[in-house]
Design goal:
- This protein has two domains: 13-54 and 150-203, no CATH class; 55-147, no CATH class.
- β7 and β8 (127-131) form a beta hairpin.
- α2 (31-51) packs across α4 (166-181) and α4 runs antiparallel to α5.
- It is α+β, with helices and mostly antiparallel strands.
- Helix content is 33%, strand content 22%.
- The strands form three sheets. Strands 1-10-3-4 form a four-stranded antiparallel sheet, with no helix packed on it.
């Protein structure tokens, strides 16, 4: 028999909710059922950020600096910064991330030079604090950041989640809903969710070679 030949399976928010309710032994009957499920789905997306790094949420950005301005406010979609470099005349210089206490210890925060360190203040609208303060308006910050997952709004929307996380997403929503509507299934659905998340997270990693160099100093 002929196969479909298609590889574009996708599900919208409404179908995700329907599948999750079915795993709870329930059906979506009212508008509030859909509303509370969307809320749970968005809360679960926030939980995924707290669980650790998902490669598909990592993006790069470039920010041109302003002379004498040591702080840069980012958008609320930025959850964390992974790596940062200062780009000057086509050359990137790696920057060191420091703590709030280390930044506080600098006696003259207005001292200008080539920024080499940064403190990332994780507010609702996060702020990058640079040391030293930029000495020109041509240098750029090049950084990789963890992006917040897009909200699940309309039922007809698809999610900004790769297909390999679909089983985890549905299992997680089923567990979240069970805590409110089917507590007798919560323990089972939580176990399924944790298994699916672990499987997806283990697959979602860089496949790079590992090289070990022996210490010959002894």
């Amino acid at each position: 028999m002929a196969t479909s030949g298609s590889r574009d399976f996708n599900i919208d928010v409404g179908e995700i909710i329907e599948e999750a309710y079915e795993r709870c032994g329930l059906e979506v009957r009212t508008g509030y059922d859909a509303k509370t499920a969307r809320r749970s789905l968005n809360l679960m997306f926030a939980e995924w950020i707290n669980r650790g790094l998902n490669l598909w949420t990592v993006e790069q950005d470039v920010l041109t600096l302003t002379q004498g301005q040591s702080q840069e406010t980012l958008g609320t979609e930025v959850a964390d910064i992974l790596e940062m470099a200062l780009r000057r005349d086509g050359t990137d210089f790696e920057m060191e991330r420091i703590s709030r206490g280390d930044y506080l210890d600098f006696p003259n925060k207005d001292s200008q030079g080539r920024p080499s360190q940064f403190y990332f203040d994780r507010q609702i609208a996060p702020v990058i604090n640079l040391w030293q303060t930029p000495e020109n308006s041509t240098d750029q910050l090049v950084f990789y950041y963890v992006r917040r997952i897009e909200d699940a709004d309309a039922l007809t929307n698809t999610t900004a989640v790769p297909f390999r996380f679909y089983p985890c997403m549905v299992a997680g929503l089923a567990y979240y809903l069970s805590m409110k509507k089917a507590p007798e299934r919560a323990q089972l659905l939580k176990a399924v969710y944790e298994e699916e998340f672990q499987r997806a997270a283990e697959e979602d990693e860089d496949r790079v070679s590992l090289f070990l160099t022996p210490d010959r100093r002894r």
